[in-house]
Specification:
31% of the residues lie in helices and 18% in strands. By secondary structure, the chain is of the alpha/beta class. The chain has one domain: 5-stranded Propeller (L-arginine/glycine Amidinotransferase, Chain A). The strands form six sheets. A five-stranded mixed beta sheet has the order 8-9-10-13-14, sandwiched between helices. α5 packs antiparallel against α6 and α5 runs antiparallel to α8. The structure holds arginine (ARG). The site of arginine has 16 residues, from loops.
């Protein structure tokens, strides 16, 4: 049982030193995605599971462990990765699993709560209901041991062999299932069917795991709106939805919510009302972006690097030409104007809402006024702001970075032009494999790292359409 009586959740920024997070390592379900289902399951391609694990995600786990739970990994790299240990350090159902209570694995928490008979009964019934399982299967699952059952719920297969329902391959994007805002948990309401079971499992974890016991009355759930039930037809458009990738806690008082392919206007509206009513924050900014697969959540078009540094997609953030320089035809064929984000800020104290003309204007305001930065705000653009690299690199998550602490961020190693832009702004870069060796050989320590982009191998992970911001749900960060 993952436990810690001093465990706390508290996230008041995107960049304070990370102390605890929730992740999920690629499970066997990802290796079962078939081409015909890839798009329904929100993948653009099939992936090679072994490479994704050994060649990519395991590095992420090692780096997180070095940052967050060093004594469990320091000096052990060779042993952990030796072939005879067959990755047991990374496998939640194995006795050599790291079982960190800082780098917390979703599957471990799920296993823990399934040990309780009542929770198991309820969760089996719920999963079977949404997956339309028959009664006998439900009985069989009820009598399955927690370790196996957790694996089945996640991978969709029994004994890694017989598929009884679809996998949930997007669970690696733990960001999207819920968001810690200060000491509250805002649970998502997924837009896509492929992500429904993830949310159900997460809901049970937050409400039932002892780790979160002290925070149970701080869990916020978004209700469906009455109007939706009364609409004719099966149309899903007006549903109340909100996914974690659209929520950014930029300061203790201020949350940004994206209105996107995944987060509906009514989802954002309900979230604002609940956040204000529960006095979680004083300010919520809505950033409405085009409903496009390329940018399903706002964290695919910008993330924060330092108090005064942001990485973002340029072509969306600024109009390429002033309106009066655009020829008449542009109004009909050029979607750029329509694609520009709409940004409105709301306040809990009834002050009138405030408009921002561009993403840059908003981010600059956050740096200067919310985060009290005294230095000029810097914008690092995807693909160095040149076509077609801006769009290509955004597609492979150049803008979706995870800050381990201020100025130390993790991103894919494939976004070369974005890397150039980082360098031009005074950042260094290092490959994760080299960094881990240096940490292990005590050539550097975590505290030495500053203004650096850590490059992570990415050929398989990037096909899943998310980066390290998506692959993390921060639970605790130091205040900045
Ligand atoms: N926070 C994010 N940007 N998450 C990315 C999620 C990617 C995933 N394949 C999906 O489409 O749902």
């Amino acid at each position: 049982m993952i436990n810690d009586k001093d465990f706390k959740i508290n996230v008041t920024s995107e960049i304070g030193r990370l102390r605890a997070l929730l992740i999920h390592s690629p499970d066997s379900g990802l290796g079962k995605v078939v081409p015909s289902k890839a798009q329904d399951w929100l993948f653009e391609d099939i992936i090679h599971l072994d490479t994704m694990r050994k060649g990519e995600y395991d590095y992420y786990v090692k780096l997180l462990m070095y940052f967050l739970d060093e004594q469990k990994i320091n000096g052990r790299l060779a042993e952990i990765d030796s072939p005879e240990n067959s990755r047991s350090f990374y496998k939640p159902d194995n006795e050599n699993f790291h079982a960190s209570n800082k780098v917390i694995e979703f599957q471990s928490l799920l296993t823990d709560i399934l040990a309780d008979d009542e929770t198991r009964l309820k969760l089996v019934a719920s999963v079977c209901a949404i997956e339309s399982c028959n009664y006998r299967l439900q009985e069989q699952l009820t009598n399955t041991n927690p370790v196996e059952l957790a694996k089945i719920f996640i991978s969709g297969s029994v004994n890694d062999d017989k598929m009884i329902f679809a996998p949930i391959p997007n669970l690696i994007f733990s960001r999207d299932i819920g968001i810690i805002i200060n000491d509250h948990v805002l649970i998502n309401k997924p837009a896509k069917k492929a992500r429904t079971r993830e949310t159900l499992l997460a809901r049970y974890i937050f409400f039932n795991h002892p780790l979160f016991a002290a925070f149970r009355d701080k869990i916020i759930e978004i209700p469906e709106m009455e109007q939706y039930f009364l609409r004719p037809g099966e149309d899903n458009d007006e549903r109340t939805t909100l996914e974690g990738g659209d929520v950014m806690v930029v300061s203790a008082d201020h949350v940004i919510i994206g209105c996107s392919e995944r987060t509906s206007a009514s989802g954002a509206n309900e979230a604002i009302k609940l956040l204000f009513a529960n006095k979680v924050v004083k300010k919520v900014t809505i950033v409405k972006i085009p409903h496009k697969r390329d940018y399903m959540h706002i964290d695919t078009i910008f993330t924060q690097v330092k108090r005064n540094v942001w990485v973002l997609l340029g072509s969306l953030a600024i109009a390429k030409a002033a309106v009066n320089e655009i020829e008449p035809i542009s109004w009909f064929v050029d979607k750029r104007l329509k694609d520009r984000p709409e940004i409105i800020q709301f306040f809990s104290d009834q002050e009138p809402p405030r408009h921002f003309k561009s993403l840059e204007e908003l981010l600059d305001d956050i740096s200067k006024h919310d985060l009290k930065s005294t230095e000029p705000t810097k914008f690092i653009y995807s693909g160095n702001n040149t076509f077609p690299f801006d769009a290509r690199e955004q597609w492979t998550d150049s803008c979706n970075l995870l800050a381990l602490k201020e100025g130390v961020v993790l991103g894919y190693d494939r976004n070369d032009k974005t890397l150039e832009a980082f360098k031009a702004n005074g950042f260094k870069s290092i490959k994760v494999s080299k960094l881990l060796q240096q940490l292990e050989n005590k050539k550097i320590t975590i505290d030495d790292l500053q203004n650096i982009l850590i490059l992570m191998p990415s050929s398989e992970l990037s096909r899943a359409r998310g980066g390290f911001h998506c692959m993390s749900m921060p639970l605790l960060r130091d205040e900045i």
